[in-house]
TrEMBL record:
CDD domains: Radical_SAM. This is Radical SAM protein. It comes from Laedolimicola ammoniilytica. InterPro entries: Aldolase_TIM, MJ0674-like, Pyrv-formate_lyase-activ_prd, rSAM, rSAM_sf. Residues 55-182 form the Radical SAM core domain. It comes from the Bacteria. SUPFAM superfamilies: Radical SAM enzymes. Keywords: Iron, Iron-sulfur, Metal-binding, S-adenosyl-L-methionine.
Length: 302
């Protein structure tokens, strides 16, 4: 991390000596904003008991509409060691978590690998979920082969212009395609237990943006034509415009029922068999958890 190239930004920050990368963090410690049971993932991830979600601070992508903006810029969170992260994994398992869900983990990949290995040596048996933006380097993903069981990845853009405007990443489509190919290579066919919980697999999420139905159709078409029903799609209508988007009026509103309905109709017309959809009023800020550092520090003895 003295010349960081973990993510596609290749910013080469000297994180080892305290310089912040594009992601907003250094490399000496792991900054974590929440570690708790989380019920708002896909049913095969959350189940009845909840996913053991660990929310990491900082982000290599930094979308202007980020729903987790409070932590994407690394303003919130507590610095912890790799040893403490391994303890958190085991504590979540003890609370009944269905899996360990690493949310925005990319920029901490080396530390996370060591923490998972340490936790497994101490009895962790749960699947590891890598919950990411899709903006991943293949070389970094290869480090996770044998560590990650489930990739829960975004695929945000097939439109390079939209990727440039909203995420400052015009190379996003090409990067995400290569990353997804590596994820599928590692995982192969999905595996579920008798209760319908995913034990191995790849889920591709797409958050529909207002006025960007064509982009969404392009993502769905690409993923399905490339991987068929090996990959599960998760089509989301929960986009919530937060303050500060006045300069981008085209996305400064919620998605309409008509927009989302047209995306679902298109998905069905392609013959997609494995997909999750959202129903009802999902575009609420209540879907954004409180980044209050719950579960990050050790619980005080009674």
């Amino acid at each position: 991390m003295s010349n960081c190239t973990i993510c596609p930004r290749d910013c080469r920050a000297d994180r080892e000596n305290g310089r912040r990368g594009f992601c907003g963090v250094t490399g000496k410690t792991i900054k974590c904003a929440r570690a708790a049971l989380h019920m708002w993932e896909e049913p095969c991830i959350s189940g009845d008991t909840g996913s053991g979600a660990v929310f990491f601070s900082g982000c290599p992508l930094r979308c202007i509409y980020c729903q987790n903006r409070d932590i994407a810029g690394a303003e919130r969170g507590i610095d912890i060691t790799e040893e403490r992260l391994a303890e958190i994994f085991l504590e979540l398992a003890g609370k009944g978590a269905a899996n360990i869900n690493l949310v925005t983990p990319t920029h901490y990949t080396p530390q996370i690998i060591r923490s998972v290995q340490r936790a497994r040596e101490n009895g962790l048996k749960l699947p590891i979920v890598y919950n990411c933006s899709g903006y991943e380097k293949v070389s970094t993903l290869k480090m996770l082969d044998g560590i990650v069981d489930i990739y829960l990845t975004d695929f945000k853009y097939m439109d390079r212009e939209a990727a440039a405007i909203y995420s400052h990443a015009p190379d996003y489509p090409e990067v995400a395609k290569a990353a997804l190919q590596e994820m599928v290579r590692q995982i192969g066919e999905p595996v579920f237990d008798e209760a319908g919980m995913m034990k191995k697999g790849v889920i591709v999420r797409h958050l529909l943006l207002p006025n960007h139905l064509k982009n969404a159709k392009g993502v769905v078409q690409y993923v399905y034509e490339a991987y068929g029903d090996t990959v599960y799609l998760s089509l989301m209508n929960q986009y919530t415009p937060l303050p500060g988007l006045e300069r981008w009026p085209e996305i400064n509103r919620r998605v309409t029922k008509r927009e989302y309905g047209r995306l679902l109709d298109y998905t069905l017309s392609l013959g997609v068999g494995n997909a999750f959809i959202q129903e009802g009023e999902t575009a609420k800020e209540s879907f954004i958890p409180a980044f209050d550092c719950e579960g990050v520090l050790p619980e005080k003895p009674v």
